[in-house]
Amino acid sequence: MLNSTTFFPADIKTGCAGCSESVKLPFSFSYAYQPIVNIASRSVYAHEALVRGPNGESAYSVLEQVTDANRYRFDQACRIKAIKTAAALQMPSMLSINFLPNAIYQPELCIRSTLEAARTHDFPINRLIFEAVEGERVEDGLRLTEILREYQRIGFLTAIDDFGAGFAGLNLLANFQPDIVKLDMDLVRRIDQSPARQSIARAVIRMLDEMKIVMIAEGVETQEEAKCLEQMGVRLMQGYLFSRPLFEACGNADEIMWPHT
Q: CA 95, CA 105: separation in Å to the nearest integer?
């Protein structure tokens, strides 16, 4: 059992104005969880929490209802719901949660509800990963760096999603080194057939190795893609080849569709 100081760093005492001023959500939602696997050890490394409608409807059916007025409340509710559901499922792996950088007011204060959810549901904070979508247009790149640094200080793992797809991936890495980088699925798609994609992937792998950053290849859909990535040294992968997102459920290693060796 973790003690209270593990969940609540001493300098996090109160919430920011956005906690009380944002509007109540006019809709409900739930989560599906997709495994991130270690292909070398044939184990489940983490599950990514993917928002769904309350009955398993698409993510779009939820996200289309997010507005500037309720964005902050939605971001906070997502964290709490993802942790609560994962704890109820007794998820043994890491839990990866996407967050909206533009919804954060003061990271050192706005994280309080996340810590409270972790304490309430007895989910260790050192098994939480927060993913920032690199492809999302972020209003202030330095602000995103500040948020990620604060998350690392508190004890969360940090990840940059969709690396290679967005606004300034290399500039972001120059200013901040996350724990994890997820290679964008467009670079993974048909990588076994594309010398150019292979060259880019090798360069990214080498760069991340030098910075001691873990890489996850996402969007892996074929045996050939998985084999090509494995031969390049990639161990952590995510995609339909292994498992589709499971609505309000988490997969275990015995249920993963492991590629043929």
A: 23
